[in-house]
Design goal:
93 residues; alpha+beta; two-stranded antiparallel sheet
Length: 93
Amino acid sequence: MEEERDEIVENPEGEPTEEMIEEKLNDYLDDVRRNPQQYIQEYDLDLESFIDKESVIEDAVDMDGVGHNISHYDGVEYDIRIDGVEYYVFRVD
């Protein structure tokens, strides 16, 4: 009986259950998802390890078009054909 009392005094909450561990882990993961840049900086991680550059570029072009990303003047991409050659023209100034 004395052993049980000592264990309760030393560890009043008892052993964590699987449910408690899972809940704590989910809390940590939610925090990282909400503040990823904070954790990348805090642990001195390389940001480029977390970004798929090709996908980011493809998504930007798919969502906004090439003109939006290259032509800061009006965001328009012009297609013109000269002597059978097609050119893409962007106004930048």
